[in-house]
Amino acid sequence: MEKLFSFEYDQERDYQVVQQMVEKLKPTLIGPRVVSSAGFFLGPWYFYLQIPFFLLSRGNPLYQAYLTGIVNVASTLLLFWLLTKLTRRRFLSLLSALMWTVTLDRTSWNVTFVPLFALIFLLQYFSLKNAPTPKQIFLLTLTFFFGLNFHVQFIFLLPLWLTSVLKFTKSSLSDPLVKVALLALPVLLSFLPLIIFDLRHEFINSLSFANFIIKSASGSDLGFRLTYSLKQLSSYLTFIHPLIKHNLYLTAGLLLMPCIFLKRIKYLNSLYLSTILSVLSLSFYQELTWPEYYHYLTSLILFIILVVIVSKLSLTRLVYSVFAVSMVFLGLIRLQNQINPSAYYYKKELMLYMLEMNKPFGKINVLYEFPFGQGLGFSPIRDYYEPKTGRYHPSRTFLVSYPSNPKHNQTARGFGQYAISYYDSNE
To answer: What pLDDT is attached to residue 221?
Structure first.
C-alpha cells in the first residue's frame, strides 16, 4: 500500500490542517480551495472526517491511505448494491463494480469522496416512491448539499434532486412551512461553516463563487468547447477500455448510446440528463484548461446507465460479462506491476535513512531543492518520525532533490525518484 499511495501537496496540506485542529484545537470553517482563477473554498467537512483516523493512527501520515481505502471499498460495495437494485443481476453487478474499482484514487483528497456520496444519493433517489416522505426528502437534500461541500461537480445531480423536490411539494403534507423547513434545514446544516466564514469576512467566499459562475459563462473568448469536454471525459472512461482515452468518437458514442433505450427505461431519464448537463456545461467553462476529474461523477453515472442497458439485452449481457472478466483481470495485472516512484514509501524510507545517518543527534538539518510545486509531502513525514526533542547535528546537512542535481556528492543514495546526499561542514 505504501508503494502505491501518493503523498504530495494536497496530502501535506490536509495533514497540517487536521494536525492543527487536533493538537492545537483550531477548528476550521473552510475546506479545500477549488482549482480555478476564482478560487472559492469548499466546506470543511472533508477535514473533519479525517480527525478520527488521525487520532487512531496517533498522527501517522499514512492514516490518509487507510481512510482512502475504506472510502474506496465502501464506494465499490455501494455501486454493487445500486447496480443490483437496478438490474436484478448480481454477477453482472459484481463484475461491473470490480471493473470500475480501477478508477478509484490511490491518494487522499476531497474528490475521493465524490463517488461515495453520489452513490448514497442515488440509492436514496431510487428508493423514493411517487410521493417522498418528509424523512426521505430531508435525507436526500442533506446528502445532495453535503456532497457539494466535497466538489462542485455534485451540482450535476441537480435534475434528480429537483425532480424529487417537485414530487414532494405536490405531496399530501399540508403545512407549506414544514415543507420549506425540511428543504432549508439540510442546506443550512451543510453550509453552516461557510456561512459563518462569510459573515466574518464580508462574504468573500460567496463573492468568489459568484465570480466563478460569471467568469465560467462569459470570462473569455474560448467559446463552446464540446470536443475538449469530451476529451476530458474520455480520461475517466478508460477503465472500460484504454482505447477510449482521447478518442472523441468512442466517447461520444458511449454518451449518445442511451438515447436509443431511454423510452424503454424511463427511470433513467433524469440520470441521463445529468450526464448531458455536465458535458454541455463544462463545454462552456472558460478556463483555458481544467482537470479531467471534473467529469469523475459523470463517468460513473454514464457507466451505471450503460450497465443497466446491457442488463436488459440477453446476448449483449453475455458478451459484456466475458469482456468485464477480462478487464478486471487486466486491471489486477496492471495494479500489481504499477510503480509509483514518488510514493509515500520512498519518502518515509528517505526520512528514516536521514535519521539513521544523523545519529546520535535527533534533529536533522535538511535542504530541499526542487522546482516550484514539486518535491512536496516530506514535512508531515519528518514531523512524525523526527524526535520532538533533541539536538541538531552540529556539522552535517542533508540535501534532498532529484538525482540529476549536480550538488549531490559521493554519498548520494536513491529512493524512488528522489536522491539524498549529505556533507559535513568540518570536512
So the answer is: 57
Question: Is 0.85 surpassed by the pTM of this model?
Answer: yes
CB < 8 Å & 24+ apart, contacts of 51-57? 51/18, 51/21, 51/22, 54/18, 54/19, 54/22, 55/22
Contact 405, 368 (CB under 8 A): no
With a cut of 50, which residues of the chain have pLDDT below it?
A: 219
Q: What is the DSSP letter of 32?
A: P
Amino acid, single-letter form, for residue 402: Y
Q: What are the helix (H) ranges across 88-203?
A: 90-101, 113-125, 134-148, 158-169, 176-200
Q: What was the pLDDT predicted at 34?
A: 83
| d(C-alpha 297, C-alpha 274), whole Å | 10
What pLDDT, in 10s, does the model give residues 316-362?
A: 888 988 998 888 888 777 777 777 888 999 999 999 999 999 999 99
List the grid coordinates of 130. Answer: 411517487
Q: What is the DSSP string of 262-328?
A: TTT-GGGHHHHHHHHHHHHHHHS--SS---GGGGHHHHHHHHHHHHHHHHT-HHHHHHHHHHHHHHH
Res 222: pLDDT:
61
| pLDDT tens for each residue of 37-84 | 667 899 999 999 999 999 999 999 999 999 999 999 999 999 999 999
**Please, where are the H alpha helices in 312-377?**
314-337, 344-357
pLDDT of residue 172: 65
Residue 322's alpha-carbon distances to 95, 314, 317, 427, in angstroms, are 10, 13, 9, 66
Number of residues that this document lists for the chain: 427
Instruction: Provide the pLDDT for residue 404.
Output: 93
Alpha carbon distance 30, 116 (integer Å): 21
- Print burial letters for 197-233: b (CB count within 10 Å at least 16), e (below 16): bbeeeeeebeebbebbeebbeeeeeeeebeebbbbbb
Residue located via cell numbers 480551495: 33
Compute the 3-state secondary structure of the chain and give helix, strand, coil in percent, each to the nearest 5.
60, 5, 30
Contact in structure between 105 and 67 (CB atoms under 8 Å): no
In what helix (H) or strand (E) does residue 414 lie, and over which residues does it extend? strand 413-415
Q: What is the dihedral of CA 69, 375, 362, 3, to 10 degrees?
A: 30
Residues 6+ apart with CB under 8 A from 288: 220, 222
The edge-to-edge listing of strands for the beta sheet with 418-424 is 366-369, 396-401, 418-424, 413-415
Q: Which three cell numbers stand for residue 52?
A: 478520527
